[in-house]
Design goal:
The structure holds 2 protein chains of 2 kinds.
Chain A: H1 12-37
Chain B: H1 23-34, H2 44-47, H3 63-91, H4 93-117, H5 120-140, H6 143-149, H7 154-183, H8 191-212, H9 242-245, H10 249-269, H11 272-279, H12 286-314, H13 316-333, H14 345-374, H15 379-386, H16 388-410, H17 415-438
Helix pairs in contact in B: 1-7, 1-8, 3-5, 3-15, 3-16, 4-5, 4-8, 6-7, 7-8, 7-12, 7-14, 10-14, 10-16, 10-17, 11-12, 12-13, 12-14, 13-14, 13-17, 14-15, 16-17
Classes of the chains: A mainly alpha, B mainly alpha.
Chain lengths: 42, 455
């Protein structure tokens, strides 16, 4: 029962929204950290 | 209570066709939030200037007093994970995530009161104790759910979540700095208001995880995937109950492996900034050393995802062999890259980055190792108890490193040479971990829950 292949799929937009909600803050954090780490090479 | 019935496990069972790729973001929402604990150091200086505002004055708290807040939070993380893991298995991930969010946010709010009334004990109780319970609950809450959704790639699944814990500091640190800058005035350091805003923001962020987490329906399996007829020798086909697992040699061997790997990693994290400056005196400035610390945090996060994903292909035991054997070699070589020997900043940074990636990888791969040994039935609860190894390493590691270093310096050893002894001591620890990993065998049949499937 409940097999992926024989049932309706979750909308792709829902996946996109979910990953964006966690991805944007994470990307912002990584960007800030990368900027900071560049000081090592200056 | 009917009001909170949406938190019940049976209300979070996924409908047919639910995409399992919606579960990692739910887990990440929790781990990215609670990972903020590793950015607590940004509050250290402002908390010592609540009265003096621009500098510490009489009556302000001391840094040594502030340091206990973080230590307490980490110790409570391990203890609460061990204590509530069994409850979590029955209550389900949604209830546990909700409890985690309430505790974590409440920790900030109580700490706000502590800052507003200048009573340090409220920060110990708030961020340290109540917040620490939120950390422990949040850390283990999505683990068994992810493993059940990804029986084909458990390492990848838990790696995605635990990567969030490594990444949480990268969000928490700049967020706190910006908020404190916003609220700061001539009469206010801006810490209290920052606690209020962060508690609220993190609570809302974690609610996304609470509402979007789903457990798979009984008997669900990924499309086009069937469990191997003849499973790998090191992957069980049966479950072990948490209290039984606690009495197996395998549990304690994995405890030693995690503890030694974490202690060794802390040896670098704890000393990263002063170490690079003293090993390359005159070459690396304090600002550049700050950049080095930032670089390490990226590798810490990346290693969590990378190594745990690799473990799905090469197996958990070989992955830890790499961590412990390669780690031992690299810890031995690391001090030799300094100005007095090879004099290579590039080599030093590269080796430290690999070591810290394996430190993170050790955290992220352990839930899948536990699943291989004890099945999925009580894996969160067993994981919770294993995290006491982290509590021990988190408290003992820095003490050990600082004590050894101080002792060396008092005996007249040069600052850069003192690191050699500390890092070579870490080699010894990793060898112990290596032997423990060597001794790991499948769990004996007498410990299995009768009739269980391990999946």
């Amino acid at each position: 029962m409940g097999n992926d292949s024989n049932s309706r799929k979750s909308p792709a937009v829902r996946l996109l929204v979910a990953w964006t909600i966690v991805g944007v803050p994470l990307a912002w954090g990584v960007y800030n950290t990368l900027l900071n780490s560049l000081k090592l090479f200056q | 209570m009917a009001l909170f019935s949406f938190l019940d496990r049976d209300k979070s069972v996924a409908h047919a066709g639910f995409s399992r790729w919606l579960v990692p973001p739910a887990a990440l929402a929790i781990h990215l939030a609670i990972g903020q604990v590793y950015a607590f150091s940004v509050f250290k200086i402002p908390l010592t200037q609540l009265i003096g505002i621009s500098k510490s004055v009489d009556g302000d708290w001391k840094q040594t007093q502030i340091a206990w807040i973080f230590s307490l939070a980490i110790a409570i993380l391990g203890l609460s994970a061990a204590t509530f893991g069994e409850w979590l298995e029955g209550a389900g991930p949604r209830k546990a995530m909700f409890a985690s969010a309430v505790c974590f946010a409440l920790g900030f709010f109580i700490s706000y009161l502590g800052v507003a009334t200048h009573q340090l004990w409220l920060l110990y109780v708030g961020y340290g104790f109540v917040g620490g319970i939120g950390l422990g609950l949040g850390y283990i809450s999505p683990v068994s759910t992810l493993i059940k959704w990804f029986p084909d790639r458990p390492g990848l699944a838990t790696g995605m979540a635990i990567m969030g814990f490594g990444g949480g500091a990268m969000i928490g640190s700049p967020l706190a700095v910006k908020l404190m800058g916003h609220f700061r005035s001539a009469t206010d350091a801006g810490v209290g208001e920052t606690f209020l805003v962060m508690g609220t923001l993190y609570f809302l962020f974690m609610m996304f995880g609470v509402f979007s987490i789903r457990v798979p329906a009984e008997g669900w399996k990924p499309a086009h995937w069937t469990a191997a007829v003849k499973p790998a020798a090191m992957i069980t086909t049966h479950d072990v109950e948490v209290n039984t697992a606690f009495g197996t040699p395998q549990f304690w061997l994995l405890w030693i492996i995690l503890c030694t790997n974490v202690t060794a990693g802390i040896g670098i994290i704890e000393q990263a900034s002063p170490m690079i400056q003293e090993l390359f005196k005159g070459t690396i400035s304090p600002v550049a050393a700050g950049g080095f610390v930032g670089l390490l945090s990226i590798f810490n996060m990346g290693g969590r995802f990378l190594w745990s994903s690799i473990s799905d292909y090469i197996g958990r035991k070989p992955t830890y062999f790499i961590f412990l054997a390669l780690g031992a070699v690299l810890y031995w070589v690391l001090p030799l890259t300094g100005a007095n020997h090879l004099n290579s900043v590039f080599l030093f940074v590269s080796i430290a980055a690999i070591l810290i990636s394996m430190y993170g990888g050790g955290f992220a791969t352990i839930p899948a190792y536990l699943r291989d040994m004890f099945g999925t039935h009580h894996v969160s609860a067993i994981h919770g108890r294993l995290l006491t190894a982290w509590s021990v390493a988190g408290v003992a590691g820095p003490v050990l490193v600082n004590y050894m270093r101080e002792s060396q310096l008092q005996h007249g050893v040069a600052k850069d040479a003192a690191y050699q002894s500390v890092l070579h001591f870490m080699v010894g620890l990793l060898v112990i971990g290596f032997v423990a990993n060597l001794m790991v065998r499948p769990v004996a049949e007498k410990y299995w829950i009768s009739g269980s499937t391990g999946r």
